[in-house]
Design goal:
Blueprint lengths: L2 H20 L14 E3 L5 E3 L3 E2 L6 E2 L7 E5 H6 L15 E5 L5 E5 L12 E5 L2 E2 L20 E8 L13 E7 L8 E11 L4 E14 L2 E12 L4 E5 L35 E5 L5 E15 L2 E14 L4 E3 L6 E4 L7 E15 L3 E19 L1 H7 L3 E4 L2 E4 L5 E19 L5 E19 L4 H14 L31 H4 L7 E20 L4 E21 L11 E23 L2 E12 L2 E2 L8 H6 L18 E2 L2 E14 L4 E13 L2 E5 L5 E5 L1 E17 L2 E9 L1 E7 L1 H5 L6 E2 L6 E12 L5 E11 L2 E5 L1 E5 L2 E12 L2 E8 L7 E4 L13 E4 L4 E9 L1
Parallel strand pairs: 8-11, 15-20
Antiparallel strand pairs: 1-2, 3-4, 5-10, 6-7, 8-9, 10-11, 12-13, 12-49, 13-14, 14-17, 15-16, 17-18, 18-21, 19-48, 21-22, 22-25, 23-24, 25-26, 26-27, 27-28, 28-29, 29-30, 30-33, 31-32, 33-34, 34-37, 35-36, 37-38, 37-39, 38-41, 39-40, 41-42, 42-45, 43-44, 45-46, 46-49, 47-48
Length: 848
């Protein structure tokens, strides 16, 4: 099916759902049903209200005059939302880039994090900010947190900084856990087993135990274990039978540089196969968290939390774009393990002074990520080690493995004071400090590369040595991307780099942030309310890099050391005006400014004078559209967000419509550009804009029957690119990376009594995501996709059992291309991150 057909089909399905719902009348005589309906004071039915703390005091979604989506624990269960990644499509405006568990970065309202070192969306677990890696190729990814025993998930759209210590310019995702209960024993379990098409059997189990220790103390412990069978095959060629690349003329849409190397992959689909490893992306997940609440008085509470989780995966949730099957093809049998461990310790102290409540949130997080990738084929193409033997091109595949370690730790302290009065004036004010230490440590070496590249360099200067291929065509193309290979001294690469170091890198960065923030709300009248806030923040970056190898500016195994330090500050205001003529209608307008810190680039491989003298056609990173010498760092980017919205309830609160229209002006946008040497480079690429409508609709149509619809249509484009960006292919009006044109969802839940003690449960959710622009060497448009999930079961008292299915149509969705690994090495083997195929299973839950 073509991309156009898929888009039309997904929209048609969504339109049919809307049409059927429009034919259903609202039941004005309905009584309070068991599915998400809460009884009103007089016994009348109404939609469930979710209590949130988005504004640092308890409220409901409908009573909070900002763009906010909240999902309760029952919502997460009914919609098969097991990880934050599953929020995409179901929450308006949220999009992602991903390569699998623990490798996902989130965007909101078109503010892509495709460039820079800082995320555009904040991520919280309770009061703890979870920062992404700052300088790693692994990107702005956050942990793949388990959602068992959550109270709710809150998603705030738009700049957040006047209420949150860790500010964000696109929005904030907050996971709110259930807190320990005093004086009560609680137990909950969740066990599931399932089967995945093209994979195998999966299993998961979770346990929660709440223990009352004394009258003033309680402990809550939660643990989860998951086993997810892989669905990506790893196919290994017979020794010496992996096909060489072809087509020296390049591929359509690729830069001109592709014409100088072999850009079309060999026919791997028909190669002789030695081994097929099924389920190469198998995942094992384990987590545990414990919270201790001590409440010596009504005014004082102390909560200490510890958390640990770990992911062990055998590979990525990604297949190779050529040939496009759910598989990766390799010259040698090399596993690509991924490891991700996360630790959290936090202390929250709250004291109610009467007039105001003082909150201190102290946290320390530590994360260690290790990822690896078979670089054999990548480096063969990068260095173009293809030569002619008896008129036939033969590739010199030297077995090689790229390994990246990304250690990250952060200390954060937030202290704020929140007013308690119910009068016309309310306020919140606080201070924030964080210190983020991040590392980027890589290792990629193989002694065989020394001999190969020595041949290429020798051929450039004169006769080919006896140890080199008789018909050597490495010559200048060995210097094409990495012009320092084997130097100095030239041409003796064996002496300069005897171990064949391709890319060894130890980078350290310290990012310090400090902020003062707060906002004041004043009721001008009983219906009209004005809120004004401001955030004043400062950041400093200290960066140290030590690089060596053929693929670096060093050119050999003697390290090059680079140090940089820079800082900046900004003032970020916010104004919100809301009008509430009655308890069922709120109209609001918000103007806010947001920002994120700047960053530094990894050292760029620059050719020496000797290389240019030998090979004047060598690609020069410094001579491209961006002067890397004059721009080693990039400045903060800023957004000015304008929003008008409403929240309304009708039909005795059985029908809600929340909608808004936003316009965002994005200045000094941080984007990644591919230099002429096909090396990634972060820079401020100009100005952009993002705008569109958002809609959320909920209805209680009949006893036990609820329907939720949501959607957004987003236009996010770079409208004023810099000269350097234009020279790199970014033209006015080009779409911002990784922003879908639209997202939408339709969720139906039904619960009814089967017997006096047994209820039947049925839910279905349809999610559609539009096309988006992504980049791996050169831009591509990823097609739209639609996913269908369903769940049916029974519930009685403390237990429930259900049959569930995810991705029932077995759609292979193209989520992103080369998010975290080697996005810049070669076009021929671009990897496409994808979703889990159709999975059918059973789930059993018990609560006591």
């Amino acid at each position: 099916m073509s991309d156009w057909s898929r888009s039309v089909a997904s929209r048609a399905v969504f339109a049919v759902v809307l049409g059927l719902l429009a034919l259903l009348p609202l039941d004005r005589t309905a009584h309070a049903g068991p599915a998400g309906a809460a009884p009103a004071g007089a016994g009348a039915p109404e939609l469930e209200e979710i209590v949130v703390t988005a504004e640092k005091r308890e409220s409901t979604v409908q009573a909070t005059a900002i763009s906010l989506t909240a999902l309760s624990a029952s919502d997460l269960s009914e919609q098969n939302i097991q990880t934050p990644e599953d929020l995409v499509g179901k929450v308006p405006g949220i999009s992602l880039r991903t390569s699998g568990p623990g490798q996902t970065e989130y965007e909101a309202r078109g503010l892509s994090a495709g460039g820079g070192a800082a995320a555009t969306v904040g991520f919280y677990i309770d009061e703890t900010p979870i920062s992404a890696s700052a300088i790693a190729l692994n990107g702005r990814t956050v942990i793949d947190a388990d959602l068992f025993d959550l109270n709710n998930v809150e998603v705030l759209r738009g700049p957040q900084g006047t209420l949150y210590g860790s500010g964000s310019m696109g929005g904030t995702i907050k996971l709110v856990t259930n807190q320990p209960k005093l004086g009560a024993w609680d137990l909950a379990t969740d066990t599931s087993a399932s089967y995945t098409d093209h994979g195998s059997t999966n299993g998961a189990g979770s346990l929660m135990l709440n223990i009352p220790l004394t009258d003033i103390a309680a402990l809550r412990v939660v643990t989860t274990a998951k086993y997810v069978s892989g669905w990506i095959d790893r196919i290994v060629a017979k020794p010496g039978e992996f096909p060489p690349p072809t087509n020296p003329g390049g591929v359509p849409g690729a830069p001109a540089l592709c014409g100088a190397i072999y850009c079309t992959r060999g026919d791997v689909a028909d190669m002789p196969v030695q081994n097929v490893v099924k389920g190469a992306n198998l995942e094992r997940f384990g987590s545990a968290r414990a919270s201790l609440l001590v409440k010596p008085s009504d005014n004082l509470s102390i909560t200490t939390s510890l958390m640990y989780q770990r992911i062990d995966a055998d590979g990525y949730n990604a297949y190779q774009q050529q040939p496009g099957t759910l598989a990766i093809y390799q010259p040698y049998d090399q596993q690509e393990p991924y490891y991700d461990s996360f630790k959290l310790a936090s202390l929250k102290v709250e004291y109610n002074f009467g007039l105001a409540t003082l909150t201190s949130a102290t946290s320390y997080t530590a994360r260690y990520v290790m990822q690896s990738e078979d670089s054999t084929e990548s480096l063969q193409n990068v260095f173009n080690t293809t030569h002619l033997v008896n008129g036939v091109y033969v590739a010199n595949y030297i077995q090689s493995l790229y390994v990246e370690d990304d250690p990250t730790s952060q200390f954060a302290e937030e202290m704020r004071l929140t007013s308690n009065n119910s009068g016309p004036l309310q306020w919140v004010g606080g201070i924030y400090y964080s210190k983020l230490d991040s590392g980027y440590i890589t290792h990629n070496q193989e002694p065989g590369w020394t001999g190969v590249l020595s041949c290429g360099l020798a051929a450039t200067a004169g006769p080919v040595s006896g140890s080199c291929p008789a018909a050597n065509v490495y010559s200048a193309t060995s210097l094409l991307r990495y012009p320092n290979a084997g130097l100095p001294p030239y041409p003796n690469a064996q002496a300069a780099n005897p171990n064949g170091v391709v890319f060894d890198d130890v980078d350290d960065e310290i990012l310090k942030q400090a902020a003062v923030f707060g906002q004041v709300t004043y009721k001008i009248t009983d219906a009209l309310k004005l809120t004004a806030g401001v955030r004043e923040f400062y950041f400093q970056v200290n960066y140290h890099a030590k690089q060596a190898g053929f693929g670096t500016a060093s050119g050999n195994q003697d390290a090059q050391i680079v140090q940089q330090t820079f800082n900046n500050n900004a003032t970020l205001p916010k104004i919100n005006l809301s009008y509430e003529p009655n308890a069922d209608l709120t109209v609001y307008a918000t103007v806010a400014k947001g920002s994120r810190p700047g960053g530094v680039n990894l050292p760029i491989p620059l050719p020496s004078a000797a290389v240019l003298a030998i090979n004047p056609n060598a690609i020069n990173c410094a001579a491209g559209p961006v002067s890397v010498n004059s721009q080693p760092s990039y400045t903060p980017d800023y957004v000015y967000s304008y929003e008008i919205g409403e929240k309304a309830r009708f039909n005795d609160r059985r029908f809600t419509v929340n909608s808004d229209i936003y316009y965002i002006k994005w200045t000094h946008i941080q984007q990644v550009l591919d230099l002429t040497c096909v090396y990634p480079y972060d820079t401020n690429a100009g100005n952009a804009k993002s705008y569109g409508p958002e809609l959320e609709l909920s209805a209680l149509l009949a006893p036990g029957l609820t329907v939720d619809l949501s959607g957004v249509y987003n236009t996010a484009v770079i409208n004023q690119p810099t000269f350097a960006a234009v020279q790199s292919g970014i033209t006015p009006g080009i779409r911002v990376l990784n922003v879908p044109r639209y997202t939408g969802s339709a969720v139906v839940n039904y619960q009814t009594a089967i017997t006096d003690r047994l209820d039947g449960l049925l839910s279905a959710s349809l999610t559609t995501v539009g096309s988006e622009r992504d980049q791996s060497g050169y831009p591509q448009i990823l097609p739209p996709y639609t996913l269908l999930d369903a769940r049916a079961g029974v519930k009685s008292g403390h237990w429930s059992a259900a049959l569930f299915g995810t991705n029932l149509t077995n759609r292979v969705a193209e989520l992103s291309i080369n998010n975290t690994n080697f996005a810049w090495t070669t076009y021929a083997i671009t990897r496409v991150s994808t979703n889990q195929p159709r999975t059918i299973g059973v789930d059993f839950r018990y609560n006591f």
